[in-house]
């Protein structure tokens, strides 16, 4: 998909010109719109330019820093960090790629050259694969010394991209494939940089920051500070992990203490709540007997009242029965009168008059109803007449539309090849479907014939192409076989020449090597013979040299240790310190307590002037060997052992007397008191004590003392005797000590000089061995490679496989030609036969015309059938309207006739009623008045009788209620007496539960209890029901101020339940427990088990308080231990090193800035200063962290420890859910405490560089420090040959041409390699010594990128050659030059 402006290939691949690694080439294989594309660098620089949309940033994203980072995340790959851009798009092109999956590679080649001209190469790359519907598959990576196109191919001869496994085979021991990004990053770092995991990650982060689009257009000091901050190394995670584990353990201890405190707090709360509950419960329990007693008294009075009510109700019932009987007699008399009136003749006439009136009213109602029906019939007839007229008009219009539709359908049927239009819908549809099927069949046959013709032509072209390629392959095979023999001979000569020049790399059996090499060259497979022999020779030589170096290193280490000890002793001697007698090996090095009181003998004495040097050289060794020299002299004259503290000489025991016992025979004859005034203990010792000791030690064996020393070095200490001598006295007397110090200085200086000479000699030997190892490595790495022989042999095999495949492909192509010709003939014959049978043309254009006409006919039919259906429906509607109108006329006439008959009947009924009314009206009226009077009397008497019966029922009900009430009260009275007894028993049980004691514990005493605040049991209270009631009344009075209402009771119970849950939870977490039980289902009693034993709730508080105090003491000690061992130990030491290292890094950056001034003369520097919003106390902590920890005072240690602890507490409080490792990583991340500030030297002062400036100056202000940071990173790399690579995307946006030249000049000044993109920049400035330029161009709709290559050599812009393709080694087939280019 990629194209070029030239097809002239370069003569050779680019070669390195620098001693450090520089990028030489980069390439894409089957990625984006590229098949295979290479981009060559010039002097380590490459510019990708072109209009927006050409994909220059895409090329940068696919190469750098991805090949250093190995992270597919969009925010790392894409320069603009757009999360919508996915790597799979670069393979599948958003669905525009022809296949469902795609595999490609991106790679970058570095090169360097040794001083002797030996070139070294390192190629890094990544394989990418995406599958439609699955997205990106895991990528793989490789690092190899091989070069793409010269020993390593990523595309085989069939133009197929190598899979992951085939890549491993292609590397064949000359490189490594990695499936994990971390391992690949580590390999890249080791091969090129040598920074280590942390600093390499910081470098990649810095490069990502530098690659931000239009960096110069958006200068940000904050972003710059963040980028530089991330470039600093953090604390070692392993160190933090150890500290985190300690803090986690400490946190567990704190949590345990918090649990204890929580238990104590919960206990305190519960005791308060439980006591309040007990007081409420006690008052309510006391209310039980009192209420029962009051109820019993109330029931006695109610029983008397119920008996009175029963007697009164019985009398009222008897009076009501008398009134009922009297009313019944009066009602019987009145009913007799009523019956006599109703049996008279006047009553018959009244009944006939009522019947005539009812009949007249009925006839009038019928006449009104029938008149309404007649009016409704008239309205219906008028409405139906209007509808019939409308239906007639619709029928005429529908018949006219039907006629027009029939004419159009007939015309279009002829054009569609149908002889006559059908007037039946089903028949018409069948004819249309048949014609369509015929058209489809003929059209398909025509398509088959055309396809067969094209297939035949394609098959013939493929046959010709395969035949020509097979002929070309045969000629290439012969050339490739000759190349194998030539390469084998050349390789053998190169090996022989190389072995003749090596000094360190010596093969044990060269004859066997060349014999095996000859066999291997005949069939080069597997590991090369030469490599195996050379590796064995190198391994043996290296082991010998390394073993010798290890011995030298051990010897040097011992000398260094000895020299350090001597230097310490020399410093002590030079400072004037007195030498201290050495501690004998038989003595314990640590004295017991009190053993070091007083002053040693040698500190408080001196030799008398008359004592000779020879005598001094005997007396001091004798004192030293006997243990008296450094024995401690007390103020009372006692002498104690210097380490054991045991008394050696007791002043209370006088020395043995003898003939020679005098001062001349004691130590006082040769030693005099002379306490060292600079020694406080010695100066405080009384002279008499010293004299007493000297008098108590004899001088010589004839002194008569059990403890003596002699001038010849002999001594005796009780049963212990011996002798020792030295050249002279060293410790007794200032003169002796000073002379000994000078001698010690001379000896130490001489010994140090001798050790330095020995170390120098060992260093020279080690340097010689290191040079030999370097020579060995150079001789091994400089050995000829068998890649050319392998490649030549692989080329033969590949060409043979290709030829075999081409022969098979040619046979297949010939068969395909014959098959295509037969299929084409059969398709043409079938087409003409079917066209003749159906009467249709064979030409596709004629068939299309008929199909269009058939469509028009179907449209006409679609109009015809609805028109016909509409006409039929209109006709039916008109007929129905006429029928409805006729029936309506008939109904109207019948209704008029019925109305006349009904009005006549009504008039006749009215006449009859009036006639009867006039004849009998007076007799009927009098009869009705008499009947009404009798009925009124009957009703009044029945009312009186009803009231009497009601009164009777009321009286009987009252009597029954009174009787029932008597019985109920009798039962209730018995129950009340039982309830009173039960309440008394319940109160006794409540008191026995202990709750009553708890309730009365803090209150006044209870009358009659016998014991203040006690319960019933054992208190002397009358235990009868009346006695319990009296006691309960006393309790109620004592708790009168307690609210014992239902609401208070519910609250108290709820609070006890809630607080008990809390108590149970906190106790349960520590293995303790608490439970609740009910007393008579009314009172709650809580039992606590603490440490496996029952414990009263009140005592639990004190027990927990003791445990809290113990844990607090242990926790304080644990915190101090962690503070000393971690925060003030390893972490502070490491942080001191890191902060010092950061300040040194800033200094290196500023040195870089100072050594590389800009062409404008602008001077910049970086200041690493504490943040304004940094942690409190940072300034003081930083000051102390700059000093050695050994020099810290106790106040300093507390200040630093407090600062670090505050940081940890702040982070922990903000993120309590995080792990301790995460919290410590954030709290102790010293990088976040500081920020980088850019300063500019202006008017003789350093000022902030963030003020107003031109676009060019702004670009320099933000870019130069980043360049300096990158340069400082590279300069501190462990590999002295590390590359110095940066990436810039649209770096010059908003910058004028003059500033661009200076900007690019800075890259050269900082010795930076660069890959950059720009829309219009060429980079052709005098400040730029050289740069490769790739001009990218794209056209919409064309899936390819045009790449035009240029180079700037510092003075001229020239066309650059097209990079060599891998297949360029073999010429294309004849007549196909440039076919695939």
Helix/strand class: alpha+beta
Helix content: 55-70%
CATH topology of the domain at 2-194 and 1284-1365: N-terminal domain of mukB
Provide the gyration radius in Å.
61 Å
The rough form would be described as: flat
Number of helix segments?
A: 29
Protein name: TIGR02680 family protein
Biased composition (Basic and acidic residues): 353-386
Pfam families: SbcC_Walker_B
Biased composition (Low complexity): 387-398
What does this structure look like?
This protein has 1381 residues and is an alpha+beta fold. Among the domains are: 2-194 and 1284-1365, N-terminal domain of mukB, CATH 3.40.1140; 221-234 and 1113-1276, no CATH class; 597-732, no CATH class. Helices cover 60% and strands 12% of the residues. The chain contains 29 helices and 32 strands. The strands form eight sheets. Strands 1, 4, 28, 29, 30, 31 and 32 form a seven-stranded mixed β-sheet that branches. Strands 2, 3, 5, 6, 7, 8 and 11 form a seven-stranded antiparallel β-sheet that branches. Helix 11 (425-501) packs across helix 20 (844-992). The termini are close together. Pfam families: SbcC_Walker_B. Keywords: Coiled coil. Residues 353-386 have a biased composition (Basic and acidic residues). Residues 296-337, 789-823 form a coiled coil. This is TIGR02680 family protein.
């Amino acid at each position: 998909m990629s194209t070029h402006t030239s097809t002239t290939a370069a003569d050779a691949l680019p070669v390195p010109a620098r001693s450090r690694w520089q990028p030489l080439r980069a390439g894409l294989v089957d990625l984006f719109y590229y098949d295979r594309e290479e981009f060559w660098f010039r002097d380590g620089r490459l510019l990708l330019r072109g209009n927006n949309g050409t994909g220059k940033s895409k090329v940068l994203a696919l190469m750098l820093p991805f090949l250093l980072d190995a992270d597919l995340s969009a925010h790392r790959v894409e320069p603009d960090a757009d999360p919508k851009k996915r790597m799979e798009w670069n393979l599948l092109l958003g669905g525009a790629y022809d296949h469902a999956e795609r595999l490609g590679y991106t790679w970058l080649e570095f090169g360097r050259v040794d001083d002797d001209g030996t070139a070294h190469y390192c190629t890094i790359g990544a394989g990418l694969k995406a599958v439609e519907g699955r997205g990106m598959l895991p990528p793989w990576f490789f690092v190899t010394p091989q070069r793409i196109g010269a020993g390593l191919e990523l595309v085989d001869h069939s133009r197929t991209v190598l899979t992951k496994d085939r890549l491993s085979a292609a590397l064949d021991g000359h490189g490594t494939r990695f499936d994990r990004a971390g391992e690949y990053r580590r390999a890249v770092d080791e091969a090129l940089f040598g920074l280590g995991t942390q600093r390499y990650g910081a470098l990649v982060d810095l490069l990502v920051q530098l690659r931000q689009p239009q960096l110069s257009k958006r200068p940000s000091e904050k972003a710059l500070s963040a980028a530089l901050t991330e470039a600093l190394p953090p604390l070692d995670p392993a160190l933090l992990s150890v500290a985190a584990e300690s803090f986690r353990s400490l946190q567990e201890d704190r949590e345990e203490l918090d649990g204890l405190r929580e238990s104590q707090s919960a206990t305190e709360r519960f005791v308060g709540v439980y006591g309040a509950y007990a007081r409420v419960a006690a008052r309510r329990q006391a209310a039980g007997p009192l209420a029962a007693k009051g109820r019993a008294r109330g029931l006695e009075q109610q029983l008397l009242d119920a008996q009175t009510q029963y007697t009164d109700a019985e009398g009222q019932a008897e009076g009501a029965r008398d009134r009922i009987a009297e009313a019944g007699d009066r009602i019987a008399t009145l009913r007799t009168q009523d019956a006599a009136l109703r049996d008279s003749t006047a009553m018959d006439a009244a009944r006939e008059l009522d019947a005539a009136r009812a009949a007249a009213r009925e006839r009038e109602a019928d006449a009104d109803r029938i008149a309404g029906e007649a009016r409704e019939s008239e309205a219906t007839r008028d409405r139906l007449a209007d509808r019939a007229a409308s239906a007639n008009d619709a029928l005429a219009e529908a018949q006219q539309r039907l006629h027009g539709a029939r004419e159009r359908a007939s015309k279009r049927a002829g054009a569609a090849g149908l002889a006559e239009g059908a007037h039946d819908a089903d028949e018409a549809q069948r004819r249309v479907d048949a014609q369509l099927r015929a058209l489809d069949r003929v059209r398909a046959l025509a398509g088959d014939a055309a396809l067969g013709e094209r297939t035949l032509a394609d098959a013939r072209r493929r046959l010709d192409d395969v035949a020509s390629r097979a002929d070309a392959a045969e000629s290439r095979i012969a050339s490739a076989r000759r190349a194998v023999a030539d390469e084998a001979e050349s390789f053998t000569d190169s090996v022989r020449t190389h072995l003749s020049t090596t000094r360190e790399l010596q093969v044990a059996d060269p004859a066997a090597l060349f014999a095996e090499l000859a066999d291997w060259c005949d069939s080069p497979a597997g590991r090369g013979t030469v490599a195996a022999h050379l590796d064995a020779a190198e391994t043996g030589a290296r082991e010998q040299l390394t073993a010798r170096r290890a011995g030298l290193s051990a010897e040097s280490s011992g000398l260094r240790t000895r020299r350090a000890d001597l230097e310490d002793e020399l410093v002590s001697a030079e400072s004037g310190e007195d030498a201290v007698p050495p501690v004998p090996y038989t003595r314990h090095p640590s004295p017991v307590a009190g053993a070091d009181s007083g002053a040693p003998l040698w500190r408080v004495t001196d030799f008398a002037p008359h004592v000779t040097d020879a005598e001094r050289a005997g007396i001091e060794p004798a004192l030293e060997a006997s243990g008296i020299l450094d024995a401690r002299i007390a103020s009372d004259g006692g002498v104690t052992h210097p380490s054991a503290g045991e008394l050696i000489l007791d002043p209370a025991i006088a020395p043995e007397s003898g003939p020679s016992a005098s001062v001349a025979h004691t130590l006082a004859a040769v030693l005099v008191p002379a306490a060292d005034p600079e020694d406080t203990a010695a100066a405080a010792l009384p002279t008499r004590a010293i004299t007493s000791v000297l008098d108590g030690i004899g001088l010589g064996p004839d002194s008569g003392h059990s403890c003596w020393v002699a001038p010849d070095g002999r001594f005796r200490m009780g049963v212990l005797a011996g002798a020792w001598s030295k050249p002279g006295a060293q410790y007794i007397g200032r003169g002796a000590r000073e002379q000994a110090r000078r001698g010690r200085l001379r000896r130490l200086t001489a010994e140090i000089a001798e050790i330095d000479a020995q170390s120098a000699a060992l260093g020279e030997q080690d340097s010689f061995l290191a040079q030999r190892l370097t020579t060995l490595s150079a001789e091994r790495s400089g050995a000829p490679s068998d890649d050319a022989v392998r490649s030549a042999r692989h080329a033969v095999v590949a060409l043979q496989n290709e030829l075999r495949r081409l022969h098979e492909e040619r046979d297949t192509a010939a068969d395909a030609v014959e098959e295509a010709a037969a299929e084409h003939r059969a398709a043409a014959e079938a087409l003409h036969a079917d066209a003749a049978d159906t009467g249709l043309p064979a030409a596709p254009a004629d068939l299309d015309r008929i199909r269009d006409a058939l469509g028009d006919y179907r449209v006409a039919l679609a109009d015809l059938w609805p028109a016909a259906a509409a006409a039929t429906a209109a006709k039916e509607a008109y007929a129905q309207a006429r029928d409805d109108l006729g029936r309506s006329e008939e109904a109207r006439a019948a209704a008029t006739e019925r109305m006349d008959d009904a009005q006549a009947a009504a008039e006749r009924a009215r006449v009859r009623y009036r006639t009867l009314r006039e004849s009998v009206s007076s007799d009927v009226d009098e009869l009705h008045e008499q009947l009404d009077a009798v009925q009124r009397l009957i009703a009044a008497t029945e009312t009186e009788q009803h009231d009497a019966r009601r009164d009777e029922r009321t009286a009987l009900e009252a009597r029954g209620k009174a009787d029932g009430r008597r019985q109920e009260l009798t039962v209730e009275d018995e129950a009340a007496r039982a309830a009173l007894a039960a309440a008394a028993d319940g109160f006794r049980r409540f008191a026995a539960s202990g709750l009553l004691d708890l309730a009365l514990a803090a209150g006044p005493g209870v009358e009659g209890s016998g014991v203040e605040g006690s319960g019933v049991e054992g208190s002397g209270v009358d235990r009868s029901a009346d006695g319990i009631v009296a006691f309960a009344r006393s309790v109620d009075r004592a708790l009168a101020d307690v609210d014992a209402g239902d609401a208070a009771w519910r609250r108290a119970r709820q609070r006890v339940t809630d607080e008990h849950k809390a108590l149970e939870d906190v106790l349960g977490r520590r293995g303790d427990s608490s439970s609740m039980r009910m007393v008579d289902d009314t009172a709650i009693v809580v039992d606590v088990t603490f440490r496996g034993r029952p414990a009263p709730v009140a005592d639990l508080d004190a027990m927990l308080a003791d445990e809290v105090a113990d844990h607090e003491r242990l926790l304080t000690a644990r915190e101090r231990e962690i503070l000393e061992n971690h925060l003030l130990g390893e972490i502070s030491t490491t942080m001191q090193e890191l902060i010092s290292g950061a300040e040194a890094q800033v200094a290196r950056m500023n040195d870089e800035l100072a050594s590389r001034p800009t062409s404008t003369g602008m001077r910049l520097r970086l200041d690493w200063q504490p943040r304004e919003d940094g942690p409190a106390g940072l300034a003081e902590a930083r000051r102390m962290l700059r000093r050695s920890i050994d020099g810290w005072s106790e106040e300093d240690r507390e200040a630093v420890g407090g600062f670090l602890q505050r940081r940890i507490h702040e982070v922990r409080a903000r993120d309590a859910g995080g792990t301790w490792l995460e919290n410590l990583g954030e709290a102790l991340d010293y990088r976040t405490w500081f920020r980088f500030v850019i300063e500019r030297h202006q008017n003789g002062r350093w000022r902030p560089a963030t003020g107003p400036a031109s676009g060019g100056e702004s670009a320099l202000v933000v870019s130069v420090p980043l360049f300096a940071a990158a340069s400082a990173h590279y300069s501190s790399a462990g590999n002295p040959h590390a590359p110095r690579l940066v990436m810039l995307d649209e770096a010059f946006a908003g910058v004028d041409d003059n500033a661009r030249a200076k900007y690019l000049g800075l890259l050269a000044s900082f010795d930076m390699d660069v890959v950059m993109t720009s829309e219009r920049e060429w980079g052709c400035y005098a400040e730029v010594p050289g740069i490769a330029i790739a001009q990218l161009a794209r056209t919409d709709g064309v899936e390819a990128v045009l790449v035009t290559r240029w180079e700037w050599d510092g003075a001229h812009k020239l066309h650059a050659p097209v990079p060599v393709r891998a297949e360029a080694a073999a010429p294309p087939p004849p007549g196909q030059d440039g076919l695939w280019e």
